[in-house]
Design a protein that fits this description.
There is one protein chain. Helices cover 45% and strands 19% of the residues. It is α+β, with helices and mostly antiparallel strands and 221 residues long. It has one domain: Heat Shock Protein 90 (2-Layer Sandwich), CATH 3.30.565. Strands 1-7-8-6-5-3 form a six-stranded mixed beta sheet, covered by helices on one side. A hairpin with a 3-residue loop joins strand 5 and strand 6. The protein starts with a strand and ends in a 5-residue tail after the last strand.
Length: 221
């Protein structure tokens, strides 16, 4: 299965605006924030109101809050067209930024996540924050099928593209299926993922090794 998103230019994280019906966006936003509040309530329900939060519940609470911040940024991008500009940073700095984005997800789903780059990554310049945000958002979509088992994200740099692989048997997220199930929920992250994929010119594939994303490298990167 292959899904291809194309835009005329990769420059400055540009490209056409994502067309999202305002009612659909509101419904998706309210749906996701309702789930977020339910998660926060769950943390409180499991805590003793007479005592400070236990460390594990504090971690869950902090992860949920970070999740909420991400949803707000996604809604802002879709509603106002405020997508981040791309910067070019060294591999170690880029990997650290990605790992920081993945930490709340690892805590929320209780799933260890490891980012591994091969020797091709060293000495290269990597796009931030757009590609980091996209990888984290895509990873969140597959974590329910992976947790609590560890998840490994393998990254390499080819001459004309960046390659990201999620080994394993996690299914393709509904947002990237040619014919998503009729009962698939329309969520804010799914709209954002498709919009960001438009801008990054992402190709997503299901392979025997797992899910693979191919991202073309612009000239000079």
């Amino acid at each position: 299965m292959k899904v291809i998103f194309k835009i005329p230019s990769f420059k400055d994280f540009g490209g056409p605006e994502v067309k999202v019906n305002s009612e659909e966006l509101w419904r998706s936003t309210l749906h996701d924030f309702n789930n977020l509040l339910a998660g926060l309530q769950g943390v409180l329900d499991l805590s003793d109101p007479r005592a400070p939060l236990e460390p594990r519940n504090r971690i869950r609470l902090e992860a949920s809050i970070e999740d909420g911040k991400t949803l707000i940024a996604m809604a802002r991008a879709l509603a106002l067209g405020r997508w981040p500009d791309l910067a070019s940073v060294p591999w170690e700095e880029w990997r650290w930024g990605l790992e920081e984005r993945l930490k709340p997800l690892s805590q929320l789903f209780r799933c260890p996540i490891e980012v591994v780059g091969d020797s091709s990554c060293e000495g290269e310049r990597w796009p931030a924050p757009g590609l980091q945000d996209w990888i984290a958002a895509f990873t969140r979509q597959i974590l329910p099928w992976v947790a609590p088992e560890p998840l490994r994200i393998e990254i390499r740099a080819a001459a004309d593209r960046w390659v990201i692989t999620w080994p394993g048997e996690a299914p393709m997220p509904a947002a990237f299926r040619p014919h998503p199930p009729a009962d698939a929920p329309s969520t804010l992250p799914s709209y954002w993922l498709k919009g960001a994929a438009d801008r990054l010119q992402v190709i997503v594939e299901e392979t025997p090794q797992g899910l693979v994303a191919w991202v073309p490298r612009p000239c000079g990167c």
